[in-house]
Amino acid sequence: xxxxRPRVVAPVGAASRQLCHQFSSSPLRAPLxxxxxxxxxxxxxxxxxxxxxxxxxxxxxxxxxxLGPLTSSRPLSVGHEAxxxxxxxxxxxxxDGVLMxxxxxxxxxxxxxxxxxxxxIPFILLTNGxxxxxxxxxxxxxxxxxxxxxxxxxxxxxxxxxxxxxSPGEGLRDRNVLVTGSDAARCRAIAxxxxxxxxxxxxxxxxxxxxxxxxxxxMRERYAATARALPPPLPEDVGAAGGGSSGGGHPLxxxxxxxxxxxxxxxxxxQLITDLLASRGGVLGTYSRRNGRPDLPGRGWQADxxxxxxxxxxDLHWSAGYRHPRLGQGAFQAALxxxxxxxxxxxxxxxxxxxGKPHGRxxxxxxxxxxxxxxxxxxxxxxxxxxxxxxxxVYMVGDNPASDVRGANEYASPxxxxxxxxxxxxxxxxxxxxxxxxxxxxxxxxxVAAAVAWALEREGxxxxxxxxxxxxxxxxx
Length: 477
Ligand SMILES: [Mg+2]
Fold this sequence. Notes:
Elements: H1 50-54, H2 60-67, E1 89-93, E2 100-101, E3 104-105, H3 109-118, E4 123-126, H4 134-145, E5 154-155, E6 176-180, H5 184-194, E7 198-200, H6 202-208, H7 217-224, E8 256-259, H8 266-277, E9 308-311, E10 317-318, E11 326-327, H9 329-343, E12 353-354, H10 360-380, E13 393-398, H11 401-410, E14 419-424, H12 431-434, E15 443-445, H13 448-459, H14 469-476
Parallel strand pairs: 1-4, 1-13, 4-5, 6-7, 6-8, 8-9, 9-12, 13-14, 14-15
Antiparallel strand pairs: 2-3, 10-11
Helix pairs in contact: 2-10, 8-9
Magnesium ion is lined by residues 6-7, 94, 96-98, 398-400, 427.
């Protein structure tokens, strides 16, 4: 089981930014080649007690518009010293190397978050980690930090995939999506909790078509434990001609491929993904006649209704217990791009969409979550009809210049809200080894407590009840 993990980020490079599709400002859009009949009914289970549900605050609806209904308790711990005037600033915190180090809290982190909650200063947690549902991850983090956190202000690498479920007119809720990751079965469960209803994982395809990857029967036995029957055909696919089938004689058409976190079985995943990217209309077992045609843009590759390809995280490396960084999802992406380069004879770059820090789409999603969370806090403060003042600044506190700092520095808020990066010394950045940060932060601080103290002072935030932040942080040591 992977716990929140420290990462060393090295984006795959310029190629990773050659994105085939553009997310809209809100919500993210699934650029499908076909018009889909899509249900927009939200049926994600809502597990709060009914009495609590009746008491949901007005502001919670704002968060739900971004994240969907929550499945965990949400109230924040708020003390009696909260100022009446809402702050016009907020924070975004990376987790690994800022709040946690190898699953242990970094000194000052818990007190810092508790103080911000007490003061009703909004913040979000923004991580490139993933592989667990947000509810599970938040519960784990809350227990380790000793601070009550909620999914309302928590964004991990694949959280923005939620917005693909119900994109107007093009949502993937009732479309076939191929999902893979470190534990594809677990990733399927997460995707289904997000609202995707027709999730296929590599094991399903291998079980239905053993010849598609004619190696190692032991692997097939292992995959059989998580395989499900392929979904029945979509109405428009019944009777459609296709070289592949779902096992029942019907073609299996995949509309999107979602890489949730770091795949383990690269060979199988690369085989299946390249099959689909070379297919006709995303139908497994077909091959597009447009592939390689010199008279078509991009030689016709990925231009015949093939599924959109999404990666949740560009990190080439991540920092684990071993002395050197380990290959991450960015390495898988690079491997897939390399195979695609060979398959196309170098004629076409792999077209894909990459989110996760430092990409702006993730920062845009995070800002929407933060703004919704801020509305919730304001509503819960009993502000009545009093207008919430604009959000004038967000402080991004991170340990990685290539990810946290670069992302904040380059992000252009659609609301004109500047993001100021603060680099802490408690994580992957080591000035003795790496020298000056490749991306210059707005501030370098010893740790998260110092980072927040600097920002609070810069904002002129008054100490509450004589127990200012510095005193609180100092008590924790
Ligand atoms: Mg980090």
